[in-house]
Amino acid sequence: MSDANDYVSPWLGLPPLPVVDWPDPADDPDAPNGTGRRDAVHWKTRTLVARAAGRPFAWVDDEIGDPDRHWVRTHHPVGALLHRVDPVRGLRDEDFAVLDTWLRSAGGQER
Asked: 28: pLDDT confidence band, cut at 50, 70 and 90?
């Protein structure tokens, strides 16, 4: 949630950034057994697309999968980068390179 604003933003010299208020996956009636997965689409996916409100967005997470990419392509009319990060290694230079390339391309521009 706001931990990135408390710890990462000052380290990178960024101002506080908007935070997505996540729904509790345990409260989601469609999430089987409280796992946070719904038809193999991650419980965050729909919330992020709604928050993007038709704008391009980049999502970096260790739980992104092909069902999420497919759902976003089908339900989001503009560019979106869904980039999976290895949870053991964390963010690496190559991850930042992917983000930089996407941001400098048409993917990061509103259409």
From this structure: low
